[in-house]
Amino acid sequence: MNRRKAMVGAAAAAVGSLWHHLPGAHSPARAIALEEHFVTPATMDIAKGNVTVELLHRLAELSQRRLAAMDEAHIEVQVLSLAAPGFQNLDAPVAIPQAIACNNYLRRQIIDRNPARFAGWAALPTADPEAAARELERSVKDLGLAGALINGRTQGLFLDHARFDPILAAAADLDVPIYLHPNVPTKAIVDEYYSGLGPVVGKILSLGGLGWHQETALHALRLILAGVFDKYPTLKLIVGHLGEGLPFYHGRIREQFDSKATHLRHSPDTYFTRNLWVTTSGFCDDAAFDLALRVFGDTRIMFSVDYPFSDATVMRGWFDAAQITAAARRRIAHANAASLLKLAI
Q1: How does pLDDT run across 38-70, given as a tens digit for each residue?
Q2: Which of 38, 59, 121, 323 is the most exposed place for a label (fewest CB within 10 A)?
Q3: Side-chain half-sphere of 88: how many Cα atoms within 13 Å?
Q4: Strand (E) or helix (H) holding 80
Q5: With left for phi above 0 and alpha for psi between -120 and 50, is residue 306 left, alpha or beta?
């Protein structure tokens, strides 16, 4: 038994006991949140340019304030990920030792101190795909992390580029998901798409206003159209923000590519419900949720907050009010994530 299975198994009894003492413990919808961010003391400078001082403090705080927010929202476990841009914008000689140190810190200084409440995603030095694959394997087998979160492109390249095959192969072989998260746009993209609108409006448009959702949807669709999921049929990909707009374009994708993407083994939209999962991170939107349910079904949607960028209590209140069956609520809140990430909780 590897260390990951041993540690999550040992935490199971503690979590079960803990739940009965949490506020609202009577709720049948136990919750795991999958897109919840943090920084370490050594990585604060990486995120500093993209967040306010207050958000930086909340990213770094991993004890009383965070746990209180989780308790108030009846969230049992946060699966933690290094805040964007992670190590995707760093050259390999810098990224490799930082990623190793970050993943060690996540396991030993955060999860081990509170194993009933925290799990984690590995941060990878994607500029060196071979090193990233080795770090993913170490993080899963030795540190017990759930998989990897990758923030968009690396050095201008999407993950369907052949150079990243070692990472994708490792994730498939280890049977762990890759969480595809947005990244901040490059200067060239900002200049071409988001300039001339004023610094505040332009920046919002480039990020959560639309830009990074569109690029992440494009990224996921490229993986499908490039045949990545034919090459690695068991590869599992998670996208946040209720699918980054993909549910809206589902019919259009099918209409445009069914007769064109003949190199694929299946219709492009088939991969939506074979290799993709989505989370609710940051989206309290009934219409978008209903559409995601129609496209992905309730077995491939998972609750998430996007903490600290979104409010956990607001997200939980919205989710608890959603017009879905009790069985669907249980699957989305807890069971789907526990199964996909092999969390014994």
Answers
A1: 999 999 998 887 788 999 999 999 999 999 999
A2: 323
A3: 27
A4: strand 75-82
A5: left
Identify whether the C-beta of residue 70 lies closer than 8 Å to the C-beta of residue 116. Answer: no
At 276-320, the pLDDT tens digits run: 999 999 999 999 999 999 999 999 999 999 999 999 999 999 999
Distance CA 50, CA 84 (A): 8
Q: What is the C-alpha to C-alpha distance for residues 242 and 237, in angstroms, rounded to an integer?
A: 13
Helices of type H across 186-311: 187-189, 199-206, 211-225, 228-231, 246-257, 286-296
Predicted TM-score (pTM) of the model is 0.91
Contact between 99 and 57 (Cβ < 8 Å):
no
Backbone angles phi, psi at 33, to 5 degrees: -115, 125
HSE-CB for 255 with a 13 A CA cutoff: 5
- Residue 180: enclosing H or E segment and its boundaries? strand 178-181
- Burial class of residue 174, CB neighbours in 10 A (0-12, 13-18, 19+): middle
Question: What residues act catalytically?
Answer: 306
Residue 244, phi then psi, degrees to nearest 5: 55, 30
Is residue 4 within 8 Å of residue 141, measured between CB atoms?
yes
- The DSSP 8-state label assigned to residue 42 in this structure reads T
Q: Tokens in use for 158?
A: 């999407």
Cα-Cα end-to-end distance for the chain = 17
Answer for the pair 56, 39: CB distance below 8 angstroms, yes or no.
yes
